[in-house]
Amino acid sequence: MKQVFKDWKIYLTALITLIIAQAIWLSSWHFFKHSTEKTYKHPQQATLHVFIHGTFGSSLGLLSFFPVIHDNFKGSHYVKTARLMRKDPYFYKDQPMLERGMIQLDPSYALLEETDLKKIASPLIKGYADIKNLINESKELSFFYTFGWSGLLSRQRRRQEALRLYNALAEETAALQEKGLKTKIIISAHSHGGNIALNLAGINEARNLLKLDLQSTSSIHNELEQMCSYLSTCTTEQYQTKKGQKAFDYFPHQPAVYINRLYLLATPIQPETDHYATDTNTFKRVYNFYSENDPVQKMDWISTSRYYSDQRFSKNPLSSPSIVQVKIRYDRTAENDSPSLINRFFPSLNEPVYRLDPSHRDFWFIAHQNNSINKSIIHPLPLFIFSPLLHKLIKKQESNDLIINISKMHSNLRFTLLKHDDESYVQSEIIPLSFVEKIQHYLTDWQPDKKCKKQEFEIITKHVKQASSYKKGI
Prior knowledge:
10-stranded mixed beta sheet; 10 strands; disordered N terminus; globular
């Protein structure tokens, strides 16, 4: 009897242990199953903020004028000089530009080491990030990159650089998505950097045409035909053996690149790429920021089939709801006189210069010079820093043709939104001047040597001579 009771006790203990173990296993499986489903259904949002500079040393094109005109200047004096200058970190001191390729950086105002070659990209993009965080645009993860390219004044080169950007973006987004992140892309592009970004749509369209073998159809745009021709010559990534940026010269195989927002900052609008802005399979929204005080934007007649570039998209692209045109101007209530046409082109003349609206450089470059007469209202900050605020102001507007006037009001910086046609008031946003002044103060540590203009001329002359010696085989 005692043995039976003992056996029964053992069996009962074993049964209870089994039930507890099964309950633990079921609860663990249920938790794992639902937590996995939650991660899959609701991955964390991550945004890639990419900054693309414009043409670099375009005036150097005069060194090889006729080859540049014909977009066929491989091995020319211009290319050799621009290549030497592009590698010189001295030229990274006044705009968010780093070495070539897509380079991730951690924005910061801190000077990690004392050096005369201060790369301004990190603190400028930190200012952009601070404005984004101030307006509570979103609580997502943010990753910041510069995309450096040759900067050559050439449609052909811009197509090639666009493919490198395309594949770099595809690789980076794929890597982040493998980590369980849901990605979106915001591009800020200055001058012809904007035309590189617009060419991303050309790559998506060319991929589709080549897949259907329709690249020779007579109805396609000539520039798109050129893109098809270029892509058809590219090898696959598997067989690409080149190094550096040429490693990205392969036919795309990743899913199509999609840009959530494209900020065009003083981009020359040209017939070769303006139609790409309406491609909603590539761009969710394209914002074209321009200024009437920017003659440089219209001066490129070399790398376009037209005898000038424009500031605005034509009426047909404008009808697309994905394009928003925004004229930027500074408050002019304090101006007594307007600047002459000569002063707009040659602000260095002794005659006083009165600021109207932002210049070509004001959109992208920090203004290290301290000219009290010619200061912008946000001096020395470039306008792109405020892009998140400009987007917040206009993103819900039905009108896609607008004006933003930037002015000081008491202790705030005011951004006023107006309709373009009749300049009627729509709404406004303000940020404390103290916040802006804090960013301005942080950037004072990054000011280069006062003799930088003379030094820059000497450095350019050195590179021109060095390129010339290469040409002669010295």
